[in-house]
Write a structure and sequence with these properties.
The protein has about 180 residues and is an alpha+beta fold. It folds into two domains: about 1-100, N-terminal domain of the delta subunit of the F1F0-ATP synthase (Peroxidase, domain 1); about 105-175, no CATH class. The chain has eight helices and four strands; from the N terminus they run H-H-H-H-H-H-E-H-E-E-E-H. Strand 1, helix 7 (about 120-135) and strand 2 (about 135-145) form a beta-alpha-beta unit. Helix 1 runs antiparallel to helix 2 (about 25-40), helix 2 packs antiparallel against helix 6 (about 90-105) and helix 4 packs antiparallel against helix 5. It is elongated and about 60 Å long. The model has no long low-confidence stretch (mean pLDDT about 90).
Length: about 180
């Protein structure tokens, strides 16, 4: 995964700088999401591996599938990625782009994985605590993982807070084994 990140970062940075300069951050966010969704399908993998389809044809096919959401700049990006056989970088590019966009807008996306459904009040408390700690607006994304047994794991940028029962049991097990 780190190889993809390393390869995708320059593309994402170039797109971000262009979008920021032209004031089209949200439009590029939508385009990259659409491109990523198309590339992530199983049919796309077969198309990309097909030896009889030229790089230009692949770019054109992807442009047609995405349709009206694609700006001329988006078409150019697809052509560049096609020429360099880099379509597989699109999902990672979109992720890096979104992180850069959030940083520029002074916000951060925080992922909360909990053992069970959280109430709106619990989500609000976590959001407020993270906003206070990080000094930014926080957008909370929640998911459920019953294997945690209880508690939650919070990830926001480089910050990871693991308050799950599963983690506590592992820690206890390791300290008892010493």
């Amino acid at each position: 995964m780190s190889e993809l990140t390393t390869a995708a970062r320059p593309y994402a940075k170039a797109v971000f700088e262009m979008a920021q300069a032209s004031g089209t951050l949200n439009e590029w966010s939508d385009q990259l999401a659409a491109m990523s969704a198309v590339v992530a399908t199983e049919d796309s993998a077969a198309l990309l591996a097909h030896p009889r389809i030229s790089k230009a044809q692949k770019s054109e096919i992807f442009s047609e599938v995405i349709g009206d959401e694609l700006s001329p700049g988006g078409r150019n990006l697809l052509a560049t990625l096609s020429e360099n056989d880099r379509f597989a970088l699109l999902p990672e590019m979109a992720s890096i782009y979104e992180a850069m966009k959030a940083e520029a807008e002074g916000s951060v996306e925080a992922e909360v994985v909990s053992a069970m459904e959280m109430s709106a009040e619990q989500q609000d408390k976590i959001t407020a605590a993270l906003q206070k700690r990080l000094g930014r607006d926080v957008k909370l994304v929640t998911s459920i993982d019953p294997s945690l047994m209880g508690g939650a794991i919070i990830r926001a940028g480089d910050l990871v807070i693991d308050g799950s029962i599963q983690s506590r049991l592992k820690t206890m097990n390791m300290s008892m084994a010493k």
